Amino acid sequence: MYRLCSILINILLCASVSGGVLEVGQNKAHGTLKRAISQAHTGDTLLVYPGTYREGTIEVDKPLVIIGKDQPVLDGELTYGILRVLSDSVVIRGLTLKDVGISYVDDLAAIRLVKSKHCTIESNRLINAFFGIYLERSTDCIIRNNHVLGYSEHEMNSGNAIHLWYSSRNLIEGNHAEGHRDGIYLEFVDNSTVKNNLVENNLRYGLHFMFSDDDYYQGNTFVSNGAGVAVMFSKNIRMEDNDFLDNWGSSSYGLLLKDITDSEIRNNRFNKNTIGIYAEGALRINITGNDFIRNGWAINMLGSCNDNTVHSNNFLHNTFEVTTNSKRNHNNYDGNYWSDNTGSYDLDRDGVSDVPYRPVKLFSFMIANMESSTILMRSLLVDLINHAEKMAPVITPHNLMDHIPLMKQVEHD
Amino acid sequence: MIEIKGLHKYYGNHHVLKDINLDIGEPGIYAILGPNGSGKSTLLKSIIGLVNPRQGTISVNGISVAGTHAYRNEISYLPQIARFPDNLRVFELIRLIKEIRNEEADESELVNLFQVESDIRKRLRNLSGGTRQKVNMILGFLFDTPYLILDEPTISLDPVSLTKFRKIISEKKEQGKIIIYTTHIMNLVEELSDHIILLLEGRIIFKGGLKDIYGKTGSSSLENAISMLVDKNGK
Amino acid sequence: MRKFIKYSFVDLIQSYWTILYFVFFLVVTSTILYFSADMTKSIVSMMNIVLVLIPLVSIVFGAIYYYNSREFTELLLAQPVRRRSLILGQYSGLALSLSISFTAGITIPFILKGIFASEHLPDFLLILLAGIGLSFSMSAIAYATALKHENKILGFGISLFIWFFLAVLYDGLILILLILFKEYPTDSLAIVLTFLNPIDLSRVMIMLGLDIAALMGYTGALFLKFFGSFTGIAISVFSVLCWIAIPSFLMVRIANNKDF
Predict the structure, then answer these.
(1) In terms of C-beta density within 10 A (0-12 exposed, 13-18 middle, 19 or more buried), how is residue B176 classed?
(2) Contacts for A151 with CB less than 8 Å, ≥ 6 apart
């Protein structure tokens, strides 16, 4: 509610307070953005005409609406950060910002907000920015429908597409972030929403939470990132209706959970990731209603995870359904559909198999200890060994089982 | 002309043929006789090339046969046991053999002779043992070759077919062919054969004409003559 | 040789066993396609059947066929023909009829299920190729073994042992080797050992398609890269051909020195 109010106020402010319009362009009243800003009053609108503006770092120190007409280009000449917003209630819309300088000292960004509130960054194109949109101690802002395109090749010298630091109550929506280190990076960011973004081909993580609580991300698509989403040292994160696709690699995950508590993972789709969900130190997470399809490992839940619930999910044609590194299990896996459960039958016709199912294969332990044994995957020998272990578990946790495996796939969406 | 010189054959450690020397050049019917296991079949198979000799040479028309196959165009062979592919039909089988030999031949006379016209379109697996043996005969006599090698040709023939067999053999002899066969039926030998080769434990203990064997043993029956020779040369 | 391929093919394709084999694949494939929720599951089931059953049936059938046609082979060898042409011809006819029964048996249901429009078409084609490769190589092994051993029981016993060895024991040995040399990098060893077993080779090729996500893990990615590369594919094809050529060569050698 609070967030909604703040957005409304933001819009009202822009609309009502706005006074004059300052035209910026080669043959216009103001040749440069810097001049226009210095002459503008609170609430004025800067209409930026097409052209390329090379003005170094431009500071926006009063509440202004900066609108690009037909995507004028602000060029950082591979040297500078471009827009630096120091005021509240700034709107930046319709600009193309390109070629931000790379620095190992400053996190140079195409658009940087410093201690700002109620700002809107919308429909901009950011090309080859070191950092794209960077919020520093800024709250109640909206970052929407931007396309942030980078060409990063190494994690060491690349920045994040959208980066929030100590910035809460923000909305990140409908952006397309690609080719950076992280697509969207949140550090000490609470009560924020990330929705309907397309995040792809980033070197490290699509979406990365660090020390961030009470956040919600929904309806995003994460394709071919080092890992789709990483949630670390955080609590109360709601993750719903997202697609985690094709995150391939030796340490590649759809979703990486590390020291995270009390969260919800609901109605997501994990498709063809090397590991669907990798969880380390996860407590009281509720994993419900998700589809795990053709992943290498659907879930790898390490021994440090307790009191998590895996319920009403579909596990379809994963090479391995569940694996762990521990002989003990303190999580609940009841009531899922497992496509590998070929020994199920339902005589009392209650929709639940009359025999429990163990989703852990011994072979996944073998592979973890001895990678080259991958070559034996799907051999008759390995099938026999897996079966023997399921009959009488020696190495796999004996109580890791679904007591009520479903006979049919869960219908959802 | 079939010449065998110093032929030895072993099956493992078992010395099956010992120093066989034979010249078969004169047209006529040659009976190879001997007790079971004396090496009769092995000798025939050596000539036809089914068995590789350990030592010695075999030549047909003056050419050594080792490693060659063209000389078998000159030879018809009738194996002891007749078993054919289950699912082929009789006419397909005949056609197949013709194709393999790359040689035209007319089987109708033989088919008539052995009265298998009604079986010609049947699958071989559906034939009786006797009919199968007749088919075997047809294949054996189908081609006009100077040499005929027959391994126990009479073994499962009914009396009627046996008569026909005699007739064919006599005709072939008339035509000046060389017919070599093995058998256990002595009156057949007395009636048909011009030459006798007697094997015992892989060794030839007698070769010569029918009259020679009587002369040598002083016996009037072939059966007795052979028993005497076998006893004399045995251990 | 063509004549012999033709006759043994024409004979075998009409035999009850070949027809049974065809019907078996037809029924099993249809059943699997009908009962499985989706194509992926069907492909996995088919892979297991192909990898276990085709080698077994090819071996048993190969031995039976040789022993059954023993006397007729003798008759044919008495004709003016080369032993090599006859033996290779018979074997090819056998392998062809096995392959055709299998191919027809699994392809018909998959086509009716719309495999050509499916993303699993490559997996299916791989299974088909693997099945044909295995039919040829395993029946060659069986034929050579049967030629070598006149004693049927011994011949069957050895053939079945070869099957069991290649299908199960061999992987056990690989596993033991990998455990013994756990401290060393064993990836290349694993690859080399895979090439030496036609069943393993087929399995790995199919696995590459099915488990691509899992194979992206460290060593797996190495396998994926290797077997997916041109060199990998070339060596695989070469290795399959060797598994057909070497038993065929042995077959001819054994036949040439054999007394029929």
Answers:
(1) exposed
(2) A128, A179
Closest CA of chain C from B45, distance in Å: 8
| Chain C residues lying within 8 Å of A252, measured CB to CB | 216
Name every chain C residue with its beta carbon within 8 A of the beta carbon of A320: 214
Average pLDDT, chain A: 90
Q: pLDDT at position A295, please? A: 92
Distance CA A104, CA A275 (A): 32
Distance CA A406, CA A395 (A): 25
C-alpha–C-alpha distance, residues A67 and A74, integer Å: 12
Chain A residues inside the 8 Å CB shell of C51: 380
Q: Which of A272, A373, A409 sits opposite C213 (nearest CB)?
A: A272
Taking the CA of residue C196 and the nearest CA in chain B, the distance in Å comes to 33
Mutation target for C interface from B9, B78, B86: give the one with most C CBs within 10 A: B86
A184-208 residue pLDDT tens? 999 999 999 999 999 999 999 999 9
Q: Where are the domains of chain C?
A: 2-256
**Contact: B88, C11; criterion CB under 8 Å:** yes
- Domain boundaries A49-391, corresponding CATH code: 2.160.20.10
Give the pLDDT of residue A174: 96
Cβ atoms A39, A19 nearer than 8 A: no
Report pLDDT digits (tens) over A103-146: 878 889 999 999 999 999 999 999 999 999 999 999 999 999 99
CB C200 within 8 A of CB C193: yes
The count of residues in chain B is 235
Helices (H), C113-229: 121-148, 152-164, 170-180, 187-195, 198-210, 212-215, 218-228
pLDDT at B26: 87
CA distance C196 to A290: 42
Please report the number of interchain residue pairs, chain B to chain C, with beta-carbon separation below 8 angstroms: 75
Contact of chains A and C by CB distance (3 or more pairs under 8 angstroms): yes
Residues of C in contact with B42 (CB under 8 A): 259
Per-residue model confidence as pLDDT tens digits over C168-213: 999 999 999 988 888 888 888 888 888 899 999 999 888 887 787 7
Is the Cα torsion angle C141, C142, C147, C150 positive or negative in sign? Answer: positive
In the predicted model, what is the mean pLDDT of residues A31-47?
A: 92
Identify how many contiguous H helices and E strands chain C contains and give both numbers: 13, 0
Q: CB distance from C53 to chain A under 8 Å?
A: no
pLDDT band at residue C144, thresholds of 50, 70 and 90?
Answer: very high
Tell whether the model's pLDDT for residue A355 goes beyond 70.
yes
CA A233 – CA A283 distance, rounded (Å)? 11
Mean pLDDT of B120-141: 88
Distance CA B21, CA B202 (A): 12
pLDDT at res. A3: 57
pLDDT above 50 (res A258): yes
Full set of structural domains in chain B with CATH: 2-233 (3.40.50.300)
pLDDT of residue B235: 54
On the question of pLDDT at A182 being above 50, the answer is yes
Q: How far is C29 from chain A (nearest CA, A)?
A: 17
- The SS3 call for residue A204 is coil
Instruction: Look at residue A17 in the predicted model and tell me its pLDDT.
Output: 46
- Specify the pLDDT at position A16: 45
Q: Do B49 and C69 touch (CB under 8 A)?
A: no
Looking at the complex, does the CB of residue C117 fall below 8 Å from at least one CB of chain A? Answer: no
Domain boundaries, chain A: 49-391
For A290, the token pair is 């998700």
Whole-number Å distance between alpha carbons of C38 and C250: 44
Do the chains contact at A372 and C186, CB–CB below 8 Å?
Answer: yes
Which chain C residues touch B49 with a CB distance below 8 Å? 77-78
